[in-house]
Design brief:
Helix content is 52%, strand content 12%. It has 290 residues and is α/β, with parallel strands linked by helices. The protein has two domains: 5-163, NAD(P)-binding Rossmann-like Domain (Rossmann fold, 3-Layer(aba) Sandwich), CATH 3.40.50; 170-288, N-(1-d-carboxylethyl)-l-norvaline Dehydrogenase, domain 2 (Orthogonal Bundle). The protein is globular. 44% of the residues are buried.
Length: 290
Amino acid sequence: MKIRTVAILSPGDMGHSIGKSLRHQGFDVITFLDGRSNRTRNLAKIAGFRIVKSMESLVETSDVILSILVPSMAKNVAQEVAKAIQSTAANSLFVDCNAISPQHSKDIQLIIEESGGCYVDGGIIGNSPDNGDTPRIYVSGLKSDSLEQLSCKDVIVKSIGQEIGQASGLKMCYAALTKGTNTLHVALLLAAEKMGLMEQLIDEFEFSQTNHLNVMKRGITKLPSNSHRWIGEMEEISSTFNDLGVTPYFHMGAKVIYELLNASSFGEETPETIDYNRTSWNTIKTISKM
């Protein structure tokens, strides 16, 4: 299978950046924008995507469809794509790259395959190329090997097996550490602030936990802008753990922290509008008063 045209649904922060990197490598990158926000439309324009007029046109034109969305939208978009595949008889390869549980991925597999399409399980680890990172797209499924031709200097695509659920499971375990740790940092700093011990705790961290402290300094200011996306991700991690007989409660608690961040006065920020003059400590102080 030779890949020439890649569809991205949808060109948000990660999707537009990956699509832009693929376009720079010579791939034809397309999208469909009906019902999408002005921000998404602008990001698609910035990335140079070719805009098609219908979902039917998208599935007929593309060799591969990459679904890159918030977890709560994954099933809805898969259903829209499946309907278009069924009506056009297109031989589409659909890759769910969202932060969803292995079971959720298997549910979407049924939706796509019952329509006549082909399905690959995926999971993205890392930040977007626009943020200076090289994201890794892990994929699994019978046709996952063919997707490695999308690898380029800004995006790595790696097949890790033929079983649906392997790629999404890897993503769940990875995000359980990274995004889960972020919420632990927020929770303990909020507790310290409410007890009037923030300064003393930071001094102790300077002495004994410099690695954690540096992560707090760099990361907390950015968390509210992404918190609306990560609420659902914590739900998916909790579901994954629960299915495996591992406690889901760590990430149920993490979900509550992201809900708090999203409800704060900083929750309306986007990755493009983050106030980087606001320190992590000022962010915590403000949120502690909610």
